[in-house]
Amino acid sequence: MSTTDIGTFTIRPLDPLKDAELLHSWVTHPKAAYWMMQDAKLPDVEREYMRIAAHEHHHAYLGLHEGRPAFLMEKYDPRYVELTGLYDPEPGDVGMHFLVAPTDRPIHGFTRAVITAVMDELFADPRTRRVVVEPDVSNKAVHALNEAVGFVPEREIDKPEKRALLSFCTRDQFLAARGVAV
């Protein structure tokens, strides 16, 4: 749980079948273009999240704001998922994706609060030493958010589906970005 000035965030494991309809509405929304599921049908979303649920190194979670679904979080082991062979992983590396639900009533600072809650959740595990992300190089909005919570870009990499900006954030970098003495 993470409490901010805009409310309380909680994270629970995603139920691929129960949550698929909600996820489908999120991942096919124009705002989610970088999620690369714009043309997905409901069964496609169910299959994708069933695949993730069955994978021992990839996990999906539903984020709640004040008890209502508000974001999707994925956590993965970059040694086996997404970044295999694209960089030299270190012990304690954890990969992350997040998607904020579309809304007709935006709240100022909400997306930053979400990524902060996601990072709090990842670093709550003492084994996590560094969070790894690989957003599309053209996704300037997420690069700014990543930087705001302590990520440092390392280099561009070519993934099968995109050119990505490989970036890292240590626990100390995250705490420093939050203004916590390290």
UniProtKB/TrEMBL annotation:
A Pfam entry, by short name: Acetyltransf_8
Domain of life of the organism encoding this protein: Bacteria
Pathway: Siderophore biosynthesis; mycobactin biosynthesis
Regions annotated as coiled coil: none
Family annotation (SMART domains): AlcB (SM01006)
Matching Gene3D superfamilies: 3.40.630.30
Domain Acyltransferase MbtK/IucB-like conserved: residue ranges: 12-59
Function (record text): Acyltransferase required for the direct transfer of medium- to long-chain fatty acyl moieties from a carrier protein (MbtL) on to the epsilon-amino group of lysine residue in the mycobactin core.
Name of the featured protein: Lysine N-acyltransferase MbtK
